[in-house]
Write a structure and sequence with these properties.
Blueprint (H helix, E strand, L loop, with lengths): L4 H4 L3 H19 L3 H9 L21 H6 L13 E6 L9 E5 H18 L6 E4 L7 H13 L2 E3 L6 H10 L4 E4 L1 H14 L3 H4 L4 E5 L5 H11 L2 E8 L4 E7 L6 E3 L4 E6 L13 E7 L10 E7 L1 E2 L11 E2 L4 E2 L4 E3 L2 E3 L1 H9 L4 E12 L2 E10 L1 H5 L2 H19 L4 E5 L14 E3 L4
Parallel strand pairs: 3-4, 3-5, 5-6, 6-7, 18-21, 19-20
Antiparallel strand pairs: 1-2, 7-8, 8-9, 9-14, 10-11, 11-12, 12-15, 13-14, 16-17, 18-19
Helix pairs in contact: 5-6, 8-10, 11-13
Bound molecules: adenosine monophosphate (AMP) and zinc ion.
Length: 432
C-alpha cells in the first residue's frame, strides 16, 4: 500500500528533524550560488544561523522575477558538468524560467513521483499512457520515468493527436492515463465521433489530472465518463514538476511530500504565515535538490493546509485543491474574480459542454466580461426560446456567484480555440 512506508508514515517529530537537517544542507549548498550568496550577504546570514525550521523566515522569499533575473545560471549550486537535464516552466509571458537537475535530482524526483502514483494505486501490472507534452514541460518526462520505475508498461503518447490516443488506449489496453483535465473533457467529443465508449470499450481504471486548476465537478465528470478514479496531481517546474503534492485513495486533499519540500502558506500581502486551515499563497523550499536549490519560492498558488490527520496513515500534511493564483485574479468593476469560480458554476449546468472562454473588454469606461460557452449540440437543434432560456440561466448563475453580470454567448461544441497544453481561459483586451 505504501511505496516507502518508513518515509510516508514517519512520526511528525522525526519528519521535522529530517527537514531541519535537509534545510541546513540546502541553505549551505545554496550559498554557493551567485544569487543566494549575494542575498545572504545582504541580510547578513550565515548558513549556520539556521537552527530551527522557523529560522527560514529570516530569508526573504524568492520569486519568478528573481529566477528570470538570474537567468540562466545564477541559481546553480554545483559546477555545470554535474548537470544532466534542463526543464522550463510553461509560462507564456516573459522569458521562461529554467531549472537544471543533477542525476541525483532526477532520482529524487522520480522517486517522489513514483511514490505518488503508487499511492493512487498504480502497479507494475498497469499500462500507463502519458498524454502530456514531452520536452521542456515537466509533465511528460517526469511521469515517464516514474511510471517506468514502478515497472508499468509506459506508452509515451505525448499531447494531442486525439484519435491516435484513443486508438492506443484500445489497442494496448491502457489502464492508467495522465491527462490535462481540459483535454480530458475535450477528448470526450472525439470518443463520441469515433463511436468508442470508454466504459464499455476500454479498460481504464485510473487517471492522473494535473497541470491546471480544475473543480471537483470536473473531476466527477471525468470519473463518470471514463469510468476511472481520478487523482489530482500538483507540481510546478521550479519544484521539479509533478510529484510535489498528490491525492491519496481517500481523495480528500493532496499529500505534500514534506521530506522533499518545506511548506509554508502565507498571506500574499503581508507575507506572514496564516493559520492552518486558512487560505493563502503556497511557499515552497526544495529540501533535496543539489543542482539548483530554491528557498521560499512564491508559487502564487492559493490553497490551504487541511487540518487534521488523513486516514490513509500518511503523516505528510495535505493541501486543498488550488483555488486560483494570486496573479490570475481578475478584477472587474472592483470585484475580484477567479476563472475557477466560473468553471465551477458552468460545470454544474448539464447543458454546458467542455470548453469556455472569458473575454474582457472595455466599453467606454466600463469593463465588460464576455463568457463564451460551448453547449451541447442538441441545444442548437432545439428552438430558439430554449437557447435563450439557457443563456439567461447561465448569466444568472454566474451573476449570483461573481456579483457582476457577464454577457454570455453560447457556441456550438468544438468551436472555441483549443491548446494541447494548459487551456487558455482568459483573453484580456482591456487597454491600460
Ligand atoms: P509549470 O511550472 O509550467 O509546470 O506550471 C506550474 C503551475 O501550474 C502551478 O504553479 C499551478 O499554478 C499550475 N498547476 C499545476 N498542477 C495543478 C493542479 N493540480 N491544480 C491546479 N493548478 C495546477
Ligand atoms: Zn491520505
Amino acid at each position: 500500500m505504501y511505496w516507502e512506508s518508513s518515509v510516508e508514515t514517519m512520526e511528525r517529530e522525526a519528519l521535522e528533524a529530517l527537514q531541519l537537517e535537509r534545510l541546513q544542507k540546502t541553505v549551505s549548498d545554496a550559498s554557493l550560488s551567485v544569487f543566494y550568496k549575494k542575498l545572504f550577504s545582504n541580510i547578513d546570514l550565515e548558513p549556520a544561523d539556521i537552527k530551527s525550521l522557523d529560522d527560514i523566515r529570516r530569508i526573504p522569499p524568492t520569486t519568478k522575477d528573481d529566477l528570470r533575473e538570474a537567468w540562466p545560471y545564477g541559481f546553480l549550486a554545483v559546477p555545470k558538468e554535474k548537470l544532466v537535464r534542463m526543464h522550463s516552466s510553461s509560462g507564456t509571458t516573459g522569458r521562461a524560467t529554467v531549472i537544471f537537475h543533477t542525476a541525483g535530482d532526477l532520482d529524487a524526483w522520480t522517486d517522489v513521483l513514483a511514490r505518488s502514483m503508487y499511492m493512487a494505486g498504480m502497479r507494475n501490472t498497469d499500462v500507463f499512457q502519458n498524454m502530456m507534452t514531452y520536452g521542456l514541460f515537466t509533465g511528460g518526462l517526469g511521469f515517464h520515468y516514474a511510471a517506468e520505475k514502478i515497472g508499468a508498461l509506459t506508452i509515451p503518447a505525448g499531447a494531442g493527436n486525439s484519435k491516435r490516443q484513443i486508438q492506443l488506449m484500445k489497442d494496448f489496453n491502457t489502464t492508467v492515463i495522465h491527462i490535462i483535465p481540459s483535454y480530458a473533457l475535450h477528448l470526450t467529443e472525439v470518443f463520441e465521433e469515433m463511436g468508442v465508449g470508454p466504459r464499455k470499450d476500454l479498460n481504464l481504471r485510473l487517471a492522473f489530472l494535473g497541470a491546471e486548476p480544475h473543480s471537483e465537478k470536473t473531476r466527477q465528470k471525468i470519473e463518470e465518463y471514463y469510468g476511472v478514479k481520478a487523482f489530482n496531481s500538483y507540481g510546478l517546474s521550479e519544484m521539479n514538476g509533478p510529484g510535489v503534492a498528490f491525492e491519496c485513495p481517500l481523495q480528500n486533499g493532496l499529500h505534500i511530500w514534506e521530506d522533499n519540500f518545506l511548506v509554508e502558506v502565507i498571506d500574499p500581502r503581508t507575507l506572514e504565515p496564516v493559520e492552518d486551515g486558512q487560505e493563502g499563497e503556497l511557499v515552497l523550499t526544495t529540501l533535496k535538490r543539489e543542482g539548483m536549490p530554491i528557498i521560499r519560492y512564491r508559487t502564487k498558488d492559493l490553497t490551504r493546509i487541511i487540518p487534521g490527520h488523513c486516514d490513509c496513515g500518511r503523516t505528510h500534511r495535505r493541501i486543498d485543491r488550488i483555488t486560483g493564483r494570486t496573479d490570475d485574479m481578475l478584477i472587474l468593476k472592483g470585484v475580484n474574480i477567479f476563472p475557477i469560480q466560473i468553471e465551477k458554476k458552468l460545470m454544474e449546468i448539464p447543458e454546458v459542454g467542455n470548453n469556455f472562454l472569458i473575454i474582457l473588454e472595455r466599453e467606454g469606461y466600463n469593463d465588460l466580461m464576455i463568457v463564451r460557452v460551448e453547449v451541447q449540440k442538441e441545444i442548437f437543434s432545439g428552438d430558439l426560446k430554449q437557447l435563450e432560456n439557457l443563456r439567461r440561466k447561465i448569466t444568472e448563475d454566474l451573476r449570483s456567484d461573481i456579483l457582476i453580470t457577464p454577457r454570455v454567448e453560447l457556441v456550438e461544441p468544438n468551436t472555441l480555440p483549443k491548446t494541447e497544453g494548459k487551456a487558455v481561459r482568459v483573453i484580456d483586451n482591456r487597454k491600460e
